[in-house]
Design goal:
The chain is α+β, with helices and mostly antiparallel strands. It has two helices and three strands, in the order H-H-E-E-E. 36% of the residues lie in helices and 14% in strands. Helix 1 packs antiparallel against helix 2. The longest helix has 36 residues.
């Protein structure tokens, strides 16, 4: 029974790393799309967040044509009994909306009141 218990434990740990990786990659793609829309370097913004041991291999591809950012992550399970799952590679693409930057107070208009540092008691 002990090998089966250890196998289940390692499966749980491996999938915890995988789902944590997808969470950070999704968030980094969102931040990169917002940075690109605000005129900042999207790849630098994503790389600030993708500095973990499992996320640093992500490839960031900003697209100037439609304002989207794609991050490609490669995931291979290295344990022998987990190789049956195959490669769990995935790509994340985020397209920021037209008024997304207004929530940060950079776009002017009524959107500036939604920024965290823009209210000053007026919201």
């Amino acid at each position: 029974m002990l090998p089966v218990v250890f196998m289940l434990l390692f499966v749980c740990v491996e999938f915890a790393f995988y789902f944590g990786n997808t969470h950070y990659t999704n968030y980094a793609a969102f931040i990169a799309a917002r940075a690109q829309q605000g005129g900042q370097d999207a790849e630098a913004a994503a790389k600030l967040l993708l500095d973990g041991n499992t996320t640093r291999n992500g490839r960031v591809r900003p697209s100037a044509s439609n304002g989207s950012v794609t991050i490609a992550q490669r995931w291979r399970m290295d344990m022998p009994f987990l190789r049956t799952f195959g490669d769990l590679d995935y790509d994340v693409t985020v397209v920021a909306g037209i008024d997304e930057e207004k929530y940060e107070g950079r776009g002017g208009g009524n959107g500036s009141r939604y920024g965290d540092n823009q209210c000053r008691g007026r919201c």
